[in-house]
Design goal:
By secondary structure, the protein is α+β, with helices and mostly antiparallel strands. It folds into three domains: 4-57 and 187-244, no CATH class; 98-180; 258-349, no CATH class. The chain contains 15 helices and twelve strands. It has helices at residues 4-14, 23-29, 38-46, 80-83, 98-104, 110-125, 131-140, 145-151, 159-164, 189-203, 209-216, 220-227, 266-269, 284-287, 325-338; strands at residues 33-34, 62-66, 72-76, 168-170, 178-180, 233-237, 240-244, 258-260, 297-300, 303-311, 314-319, 344-349. The strands form four sheets. The protein has a five-stranded mixed β-sheet with strand order 8-9-10-11-12, with helices on one face. A three-stranded antiparallel β-sheet has the order 1-3-2. Strands 4-5 form a two-stranded antiparallel ribbon. α15 (325-338) links the parallel β11 and β12 (344-349). The radius of gyration is 22 Å and the shape is globular. The two termini are 37 Å apart.
Length: 350
């Protein structure tokens, strides 16, 4: 039977926070990285990789698209078939927009949607890649205000199914830009789902069924159905059933004194937040705020004790409680290992 401390050692290693690896391996193993805010992807890779990660190269070999939990993730381009799997035989590279019309409660006729969709793809192929520029081009070509409110809405509009169907991908950069999607062959849905779950129980686990349901946004009943197809190993930790794939090692690295995790970090998103072994329950809203943002945590000896914020060359550490001078030094040491441009440090209690 494992202790909670040993569980943390295993999870930190499997998530590459102590057992670092190359960028593509990290993205493969973690099913990509949530990418609403692109600087978080850069930071999540920087603290997990054993290769140099810079703001210029971190997106090389990656694409950005809607995947797990219906949110945008940055992931390895060779995983497009895994995440954009076959919904049905008419979906991949299809211009049948009747389904989208029903989903949006959209009054734009399917043939009109097809015309605008083809126009957008042609413009991206011609080098018009920024979302706002595409919107301007569509208005110049006759798109009405009513059409524009659907086609470029805040949930992705027509660009969302164009990405789902393999026509476009987001570029891996902060600005909302698109590119022609690299060609890929979609996996069959059942095969893709099993592979995503296999990666989870290999690289996030040991984890509970409740953790996996939270991570994927599925029901626990559905998770239980899928794992019947995988040779999971079960163990009891602190009175709960945990599951994992691959034999555990006997020599995982110690929990680091400090890790400055990324915003939307997989260590926070990978497990049910109400059961987190890292984040004290009374501080959940200090990391998972009501606007849906997951702020960047300070992990001190395996426990979230605050959050950090960087603006230009200034770093602010916002702590939940007072900490010792020694622990402040651990945090500042982690900061210096990660950033080379900090000129001012501030501490605050929240």
């Amino acid at each position: 039977m494992l202790s909670i401390n040993e569980l943390k050692q295993i999870q930190l290693s499997r998530q590459h926070l102590t057992d670092k690896s190359d960028k593509i391996t990290v993205c493969h193993n973690l099913n990509g990285l949530q990418a609403q805010i692109m600087v978080n992807v850069y930071h999540a890779l920087k603290i997990r990789c054993n290769e140099e990660i810079t703001k210029k190269n971190f997106g090389d070999g990656l694409v950005k698209n809607w995947t797990i939990r219906g949110t945008v993730h940055a992931f390895a381009a060779d995983d497009l078939g895994l995440f954009k799997y076959n919904h049905d035989e008419r979906y991949h590279l299809s211009h049948n927009w009747e389904v989208e019309k029903m989903r949006w409660h959209c009054r734009i006729p399917p043939d009109r949607l097809e015309y605008i969709a083809r126009f957008i793809v042609e413009k991206v192929a011609d080098g018009v890649t920024a979302r706002e520029n595409l919107k301007e081009e569509c208005y110049r070509a006759g798109m009405t205000e009513a059409e524009g409110s659907f086609i470029f809405n805040q949930w992705g509009g027509l660009l969302h199914p164009l990405c789902d169907r393999g026509f476009l991908c987001h570029k891996v950069r902060e600005k909302k830009e698109f590119m022609i999607c690299p060609r890929f062959t979609p996996m069959e849905k059942d095969e893709a789902i099993i592979e995503q779950v296999r990666r989870y129980f290999t690289n996030y686990a040991p984890a509970t069924i409740r953790d996996a349901a939270y991570y994927f946004g599925w029901s626990q009943t559905y998770i239980k159905e899928i794992i019947q197809k995988l040779p999971l190993i079960q163990t009891e930790i602190d009175g709960k059933s945990y599951f994992y794939l691959d034999k555990l090692k006997s020599d995982y690295l110690d929990i680091p004194h400090c890790i400055l995790l990324a915003g939307f970090d997989q260590l926070m998103l990978g497990y049910q937040k109400k059961d987190s072994i890292y984040l004290p329950q009374k501080y959940i809203r200090s990391i998972f705020n009501l606007a849906g943002i997951v702020l960047p945590p300070i992990l001190l000896d395996g426990v979230v004790v605050g959050r950090w914020r960087k603006k230009n060359t200034k770093m602010t550490f916002e702590m939940f409680e007072d900490i010792s001078v020694r622990n402040k030094k651990y945090i500042e040491s982690s900061m210096e290992e990660t950033f080379d441009d900090i000129r001012k440090v501030e501490w605050a209690l929240i």
